[in-house]
Design goal:
single chain; 237 residues; alpha/beta; five-stranded parallel sheet; 11 helices; 12% strand; globular; disordered N terminus; disordered C terminus
Length: 237
């Protein structure tokens, strides 16, 4: 593990799942990490929202691991409320078949998603990545999720797309297009004959201009505005 992944204080994590055994398993994995601390658990979305709100201002929850299907309030609504209140980053826990609720939760403001059967190393790295401001999932994985549920996306319309994309430079639009088609920063850098640092700079400006939080939302935006359509991404020209 590189030194830059470590922080002065442990990353404060809230676990949200209606199955106690699942929460216990996650707690065992996470509490074994010197830079991660499980500061609370919740069995449904309503309890999660309250748990985030109840934390002291000087030690707030930083990352929420959020199940999707739960009683009282599901993970989608809970994510929407937590993000709207300026709360912590949310990682959606979804099943292997990438159920449609995962996409809805990302739309609600989640920073990404993780398969429930992910290994301990993946879980830990996802939390560290989100805490540092990165997306949880690889762009190609996000693209596959969006491709599968493209029928749920609004058409957006050319007028909406033109208005939103007009704020971007030609190069920024190109970078966004490649990100949405599943390319990593390294692949984009190689394709455009620039450094990875330059790609990251472009990505930062894209997020700022479009008012987006992370790479995942940028991909969603690209699909919604029609910059990229379902099925694109493979066999890049």
């Amino acid at each position: 593990m590189s030194e830059e992944t470590w922080v002065d204080e442990p990353i404060r994590v809230l676990l949200v799942d209606d199955q106690e055994l699942v929460r216990a398993g996650f707690t065992m994995v996470l509490d074994a990490q010197p830079d991660i601390e499980v500061v609370g658990e919740a069995g449904d979305g309503a309890a999660a929202v309250e748990a985030v709100r109840a934390r002291p201002a000087d030690s707030p929850v930083e990352v929420v691991l959020m199940d999707v299907r739960m009683p009282r309030m599901d993970g989608i609504e809970a994510t929407r409320r937590i993000v709207a209140a300026g709360g912590p980053k949310v990682i959606i826990l979804t099943t292997f078949d990438l159920d449609e609720y995962a996409f809805a939760a990302i739309k609600a403001g989640a920073s990404g998603f993780l398969l429930k059967d992910a290994g301990p190393a993946q879980l830990v790295e996802a939390i560290r990545a989100v805490r540092s401001g990165d997306a949880v999932v690889a762009p190609s994985t996000t693209k596959r999720l969006l491709d599968r549920f493209a029928l749920h996306l609004p058409d957006g319309g050319r007028e909406k797309a033109d208005e939103a994309l007009a704020a971007l430079t030609e190069r920024e639009t190109e970078v966004l297009h490649l990100v949405a088609r599943g390319m990593s920063n390294a692949e984009i850098a190689e394709r455009l004959y620039v450094s990875e640092a330059t790609v990251k700079t472009h990505m930062g400006r894209i997020l700022m201009k479009l008012g987006l939080r992370d790479r995942v939302q940028a991909v969603v935006f690209a699909y919604e505005t029609g910059l990229v359509k379902s099925g694109q991404g493979d066999n890049l020209p």
